[in-house]
Amino acid sequence: MPLPTSLCVYCGSSSGKHPHYAAQAREFGTEMARRGITLIYGGGKVGLMGTVADAVLAAGGKAIGVIPRQLVEREVAHPGLTEMHVVETMHQRKTRMYELSDAFVALPGGFGTMDEMFEMLTWAQLGLHRYPCAFFDVRGYYAQLRAMMDHMVTEGFVRAEQRDWIWFGDSTEQLFDWMAQHQGGYTPKWIDRSSVEA
């Protein structure tokens, strides 16, 4: 498939304890703009969210935010985006971000980042989309998550084929090269006979 035109980036509303997180987020956002890829993200001006958006905009790119009204009212909404979609609930936010995107990347983040990215992985597992899903592994942030996914395969809860279409790495160039070659795919989730008969 060609490179995505609208990339959904999930990441922290904090910047983390090491400056390399923000530095990589800036590099990533700048490269998105250079390649003409629109940023779809959570609409915040704080943390890595704000860093990515600022980098995209500074490099002449487009940044579209989707934010629940309660967060707008807490004054964390980015004031300078290309577009801002204000929704009522977190569920509406995730759905709208999905509708606007044709690829998904998680930079370092917390519970919200995991929640949003794993929903996209689950939808891919169910065959609801075939878009690229990737974890940008800054400073080894996702190394233990990668090991956990491998453990899920070993223990029979995830198919190896489903694990294999999730990218992990720390190179912006390699990530976009992988996306350009990504073919999608769908391997049905199996249900063990023992589970049915239990």
Explained architecture:
- The protein is of the alpha/beta class and 198 residues long.
- Helix content is 46%, strand content 16%.
- The protein contains 9 helices and 7 strands.
- It has helices at 19-34, 47-58, 69-73, 90-100, 111-125, 143-154, 160-164, 172-181, 193-197, and strands spanning 6-10, 38-41, 63-68, 83-87, 104-106, 133-136, 166-169.
- It has a 7-stranded parallel beta sheet, with helices on both faces.
- Helix 1 (19-34) packs parallel to helix 2 (47-58).
- The mean pLDDT is 92.
Describe this protein with a few key phrases.
198 residues; 7 strands; seven-stranded parallel β-sheet; alpha/beta; globular; 46% helix; 9 helices
Query: What kind of sheet is the major sheet?
Result: 7 strands, parallel
Strand order of the largest sheet: 4-3-2-1-5-6-7
- How widely separated are the two ends? 42 Å
Low-pLDDT stretches are none
Query: What would the average pLDDT be, to the nearest integer?
Result: 92
